[in-house]
Amino acid sequence: MRYTPAILIGRGVRVLARLRKPGGGSAVPGLVVNRIAPGFLASALNGFPQGLVIVSGSSGKSTTTKMLVAALRAHGLTVFTNSSTANIKQGLTSALLERASLTGRVAGDIAVLEMDEGHGAAIAPTLTPRVVALTNVMVDQIDRFHDSEMVAALLRKIALRATGVVVINADDNYLADLGTDVEAGPTGARVDRYGVTAAVFEANPRGLGYTHTRSERLAPGDGLLVTAVNGRSAQFELGGVNYPVTLPARGTHYAVDAATAVATARAALGSRFDAEVAIAAVGSIPPVFGRGEIVTVKGEDLEFVLVQNPASFQLNVDSLEPDTEQILIAIGSDVRDPSYFWPVDTSSLRHVLIASGSKAHDIALQLVYDDVVVDRIEPDVGVALDAFLALPRPTQGLKTIIFSADGMRRARAHLGLATNAEEPV
């Protein structure tokens, strides 16, 4: 009962925060509880009967987590998870407050949590995850993570806390080295690997955003391989058996997210794992909050494409339907230094109708240097969206909005859509 007062105070703060700012303030209760009961977060996360699963890495965390949760639930487990907007310490605590009893226990067989690299590393010493899944190491959030070596070091702190299995992308050199450290580490954790075949990599000449050495790292029958990708369809090889896979959105990066989820489900479930059940569950989820999501506004279908780092920008641009006719790009204040995106080759877009967001002029300049025609620069996202929606329906593809996280929040708010991902369940 030692956490009861903190839980009651946290819930009271949440009510007040929502009264003050409807739809917002969700991290405030977590900040308060972490201050007055610093042990609550670790106690709750370490208290699930079948343990804690952590998903972290530079990119792909949200999609992988949602796929993994679906796979575990399809096997009959009750899963506690967090939304993609609650992957830092205070957000995790706020998510737990929603479900915790007054004794600080959270109902469920297992917890599956997406964790920000930095915040995950900070709380890692207090956690005993049974499984840790690591997606990749990329140039990401350069205002926080100065280089890839820093990200790898943060992920290492998380991985070395695993007591059972660490699941890694064998095609990422940083993670391959980290896997070797885990196998020699003090907890005796096993390392499971997944990756793509040389054929898949060679069909994607821009790569997958990380230093790629192909999955010759994986011996035949060792780990899970993505053997083919075609739009929203893929094929996996696992244990000598080939499985067709449906993806929530186009692109090899989504196939890799699905592979991460299936490999992690296998690690978490052990002998109970059924590959067909897991893969069917992974193929059943809708796109994750802005990541290839299609919404209908005023009778018009819009495709949302979220870009959060140079690799995701490149991969999403490359996977757009050919000859997509109407494109709006909104890059906002979350991209503090626009040169962050300069490595991205946007030339395949060919024609962008509107560049918007607080970095509208910067992204327009990059597009023009890549020989992309830009019809209009409009920093006000609301004005840009109204003009975009007023256009006749395209004859080729959907109206497509490419945005950074800030651009996404502003666009969704203007369109009357939810600005936060789904609540934890």
List keywords for this structure.
alpha/beta, UDP-N-acetylmuramoyl-L-alanine:D-glutamate ligase, 2 domains, 6-stranded mixed β-sheet, 15 helices, 15 strands, globular
Topology:
Elements (H helix, E strand, L loop, with lengths): L3 H17 L7 H9 L3 H6 L6 E5 L4 H14 L4 E3 L7 H11 L10 E5 L2 H7 L7 E4 L13 H12 L5 E5 L3 H11 L6 E7 L1 H5 L21 E7 L2 E6 L2 E6 L5 H18 L5 H8 L8 E7 L2 E7 L3 H10 L7 E4 L20 E6 L3 H10 L3 E6 L2 H9 L9 E5 L1 H11 L10
Parallel strand pairs: 1-3, 1-4, 2-3, 4-5, 5-6, 6-7, 11-15, 12-13, 12-15, 13-14
Antiparallel strand pairs: 7-8, 8-9, 10-11
Helix pairs in contact: 1-2, 2-5, 4-10, 4-11, 6-7, 7-8, 10-11
The CATH homologous superfamily of the largest domain is termed Mur-like, catalytic domain
What is the terminal separation in angstroms? 24 Å
How many beta strands in the DSSP annotation?
A: 15
Rounded to the nearest angstrom, the radius of gyration is: 21 Å
Strand order of the largest sheet: 2-3-1-4-5-6-7-8-9
Structural class of the secondary elements?
alpha/beta
Largest pleated sheet: 9 strands, mixed
CATH fold description of the largest domain = UDP-N-acetylmuramoyl-L-alanine:D-glutamate ligase
User: Helical element count?
Assistant: 15
Overall mean confidence score, pLDDT: 85
Number of domains: 2
Task: Indicate the overall shape.
Answer: globular
Relative helix content: 25-40%
CATH architecture descriptor name of the largest domain: 3-Layer(aba) Sandwich
> What order do the helices and strands follow?
HHHEHEHEHEHEHEHEEEHHEEHEEHEHEH
Top CATH class of the largest domain: Alpha Beta
Q: Strand fraction band?
A: 15-25%
The low-pLDDT segments are: none
